[in-house]
Design goal:
With 433 residues, this protein is an alpha/beta fold. It has helices spanning 11-27, 51-64, 77-87, 94-105, 109-138, 146-182, 199-206, 250-255, 257-264, 280-293, 313-326, 339-351, 366-375, 396-406, and strands at residues 2-5, 36-39, 68-71, 90-93, 187-193, 224-228, 236-240, 268-274, 301-306, 329-330, 354-362, 377-383, 387-395. The protein binds guanosine-5'-diphosphate (GDP) and magnesium ion.
């Protein structure tokens, strides 16, 4: 496999990208026998890497018995063809490799649909250029060779199929949106992060989900949503979905919009990072770039430093200290550590914008009691002869709903702090943290 380093990229960046390409290659079942990084002032228009480098690659491939060359960039169809001719081996560019892995991993109809759209989108413009290239070498100027006709047929077929598939994707997207609308007062938390950081493992630890988790890139391509149990009063769901990677192909981001909208519409993101990875910082940056691309960069995040069990003992304390300073949470999904801290951190965020109220609930208000037990956080309960003195905390929307229904019968609970009885030291305005 080979990468190209342009002056604007540091050697480190280029090397990290190549390492990532190596894990991608392994994920699709290839064994990497050699890697090369070529520095150039600019891309070679004809062969991308430059003719000399290409000839070198051919020699090396012959020596090592390599039958596939991976290029850590996206090639134009002409570049791919020219390179293929020189090295006399199959060439795959970065996007083709990633699409290949996605296609292998897709299990559900939704994931398969999204991958197919991405593949066709990538193929369509390449098909055009490929055929143009053929007809240029084949017929003379102005001749309308058989290739051209075939090209038009192929293009039309692909376009028709794309239209049909995209239509289905749009419908799925709308359905998902409607479902979310029905549960709009539920606080939605989504796991995001680099592929293989441990998102699905955390999902399974935090909810009753059984999302497949393996040490493989892009094991998860679908979105799974489960109730996140944070205790009474907290209505939250947790969503696990596809992981990100550096330079995630645009066609994939586009076609995975329905799945990724689960992220884009979340109230809070748990940004899971592999704390043991030397590439953690670069990964974090790539994830934030994809979040920006899908319009999710303004959503509040909690950084989760996972795989803490893999940290050398002498680094562990430092990491925990650093995490505490930056508001991150250190976890090990493997050992089940840090999950309580993570739940606490989520509860803290959920309470932002919550309101507090206090008052006497008469014993006769059975229905209100049931509502309070189910949908608000009960901070204090003091039974007395006339009823129960409570102090509660809840989302503003829930407070409004309760007030509309019970405000007339239990006014004290919904009075603002200033006008409240001596015991009620906090009112709706003073809620949250
Ligand atoms: N040692 C260790 N391995 C973990 C931890 N969390 C996840 N893994 C492993 O990392 C691999 C990827 O995990 P997965 O949850 O599928 O990652 P995802 O791609 O982010 O969903 C699996 O082999 C997990 O068993 C952890 O805290 N410690
Ligand atoms: Mg996963």
């Amino acid at each position: 496999m080979a990468g190209l380093r342009l002056p604007q990229h540091s050697r480190e960046e280029a090397e990290e990208s190549l390492s990532e390409l190596a894990s991608l290659a392994e994920a699709s079942g290839a064994r990497v026998v050699a890697r090369a990084l070529q520095s150039r002032a600019r891309v070679d228009g004809r062969t991308f890497l430059g003719g000399g480098k290409a000839a070198e690659l051919k020699e090396q491939a012959e020596e090592l018995g390599a039958n596939l060359i991976l290029i850590d960039h996206d090639l134009s169809p002409a570049q791919a063809r020219n390179l293929e001719k020189i090295v006399d081996r199959k060439i795959l560019d970065r996007t083709e490799l990633i699409l290949d892995i996605f296609a292998r991993r897709a299990r559900t109809p939704q994931a398969k649909l999204q991958v197919e759209v991405a593949q066709l989108e990538y193929l369509l413009p390449r098909l055009t250029r490929l055929w143009e290239h053929l007809s240029r070498t084949g017929g003379g100027i102005g001749t309308r060779g058989p290739g051209e006709t075939q090209l038009e047929v192929d293009r039309r077929r692909i376009r028709d199929r794309l239209t049909h598939l995209k239509d289905r994707l749009t419908r799925t997207g709308k359905r998902l949106e409607q479902q979310r609308g029905l549960h709009s007062d539920v606080f939605r938390v989504a796991l995001v992060g680099y592929t293989n950081a441990g998102k699905s493992s955390l999902m399974n630890r935090l909810t009753s989900a059984e999302v497949p988790s393996r040490d493989r890139l892009f094991e998860t391509l679908d979105a799974t949503t489960r109730i996140l149990d944070l205790g009474p009063g907290f209505r939250a769901t947790l969503t696990d979905t596809v992981g990100f990677i550096r330079r995630l192909p645009h066609s994939l981001v586009e076609s995975f919009r329905a799945t990724l909208s689960e992220v884009a519409s979340a109230d809070l993101l748990l940004h899971v990072q592999d704390a043991s990875s030397p590439m953690a910082d670069a990964c974090e940056k790539s994830v934030n770039e994809v979040l920006e691309e899908i319009g999710a960069d303004q959503i509040p995040q909690i950084a989760v430093w996972n795989k803490a069990d893999l940290l050398p003992a002498e680094e562990f304390d430092g990491a925990v200290r650093q995490a505490a300073e930056s508001g991150a949470v250190v976890t090990s999904a493997f050992r089940g550590e840090g999950l309580d801290r993570l739940r606490d951190a989520i509860r803290d965020r959920l309470r932002d914008g919550w309101v507090e109220g206090a008052g006497l609930i008469p014993l006769s208000e059975g229905e209100l009691w049931a509502r309070l037990r189910a949908s608000v956080e009960l901070l204090e309960e003091r039974p007395g002869p006339l009823g129960v003195e409570v102090r509660v905390r809840m989302p503003r929307a829930e407070w409004m709903r309760l007030r509309a229904r019970y405000g007339g019968r239990v006014p004290s609970l919904f009075e603002p702090a200033a006008g409240a009885a001596a015991g009620a030291d906090v009112g709706p305005g003073a809620g949250g943290r």
